[in-house]
C-alpha cells in the first residue's frame, strides 16, 4: 500500500509538466561530478575509486493559473572502479518532488508529493500532503500527513525501523513583528519489531519561540518532549545581538536527552541508551568587521557528555582584495577533550587545528587553495598529525555552464596517504515563459 502511494504521488507530481511548462518559468540546476581517489590503508591493498555522481534540481514556476509550481531534486551515483560506498555499485535518491499551490489570501499553500516539513519541532520527510494558512488575530495553522520515507534496511533486518505512516502539525500565534509562539506534534505509526536493534515509535510534542523586542536582539529556540519515553527530548535556543552593523554576537544553548532524542533512530540503538544520559553544549561567537575588506571572529563552545567535558575555542581572520574577487582567511582552534572522547587507549583527544584558504572568482576563471592541519596532543595510531591540502580550478564556459576540478592530497592516522580528485560540470539557468534565458 505504501509503495503504491509513493508511486502514485510521484506520478501525479510529474503529470502537469509537459502541458504547462511552455507557459512557465523553469530553473534547472545540474551538477555532474567524476571523483578520483586512491586509498592506501595500512595492512590493506590500495583502492582506486572513480564514482560518477549526477545531481539534478528543477523548479517550474507559474504553472496553470500562475500559482502552481513544481519542484524536484535527486541524485544518482555509479562506481566506475572499486566500490566507493557500501556494496552497491549503483545508487541514488529521490530527495523531493512535489507540486505546490500558493493561494492569494492568508499566505496559504498546499504541497503534494515527496516533501520536507520544517515547522517548529517538526523536521520530517514525507510522501504525502502538507498545508498551511494564516488565521485571523495573528494565529496560524499547518498540518501534514502521509507515508514515511524509508531508507535502506538495517543490517540483518527487513526494515529500517520506521513506522509506515506519519502525521503532525503546528499551531502558532504571531504578535506584529515582535513575537511568534508555536506548538507542534509528530505522530508516527507503530515502529516494527526488529531482531538486532532496539527501537521505539517516533512521537514528539513541543513548543517554539521567536522573539525580537528590539531590532538588535533576536531570540529563537524550541523544546520537545518524547511521549514514548515520557521525558524531555531536546532544548535548543539561540540569541543574536547586533548592537552595530559591523558587530554580531551570538550565544547558544543545546541539550539532548540521548534516549528520548535518539530513540526512534534504530541505527544508533537509541532505545537501548541509558534514560539518564544527556548531551549539552553552551557557547558563543563574536564577529567584527574591522574594515570593509577585513574581519575578525572568535568562538567558544563547552561540551558536556556522559564520557566527560570538552572545550573548543579559537579565532579566524578574513581579508578580501580587488573588489572581493580575492578572499583569504587564516584560523586557529584548540579542542581540549579528555580520554572519554579519545580513540583507543589515548589519554586525551585534544588537538590544535590550523586552517588557511584563498579564493579567486572572476567572470571567466575561479580558483581556490585550502589547507588544514590537525596536530594531536597525544599520537593517534602512532601519528602526530593529520593534514590535507586541496587545489581547485574552474572556468565559466558560459554564464550558465562551468567546468571545474579539485585535487587534494593528505596523510592521516587512518590512511597512510590519501589522494583525491574530481571533475565537476555545473549547469544553472532559468528560462522564461517564451523559452528564452533570463
UniProtKB/TrEMBL annotation:
Question: Any idea which UniProt keywords this protein has?
Answer: Signal
The signal peptide stretch is 1-23
Instruction: Return the protein name.
Output: Porin
This protein's species is Oryzomonas sagensis
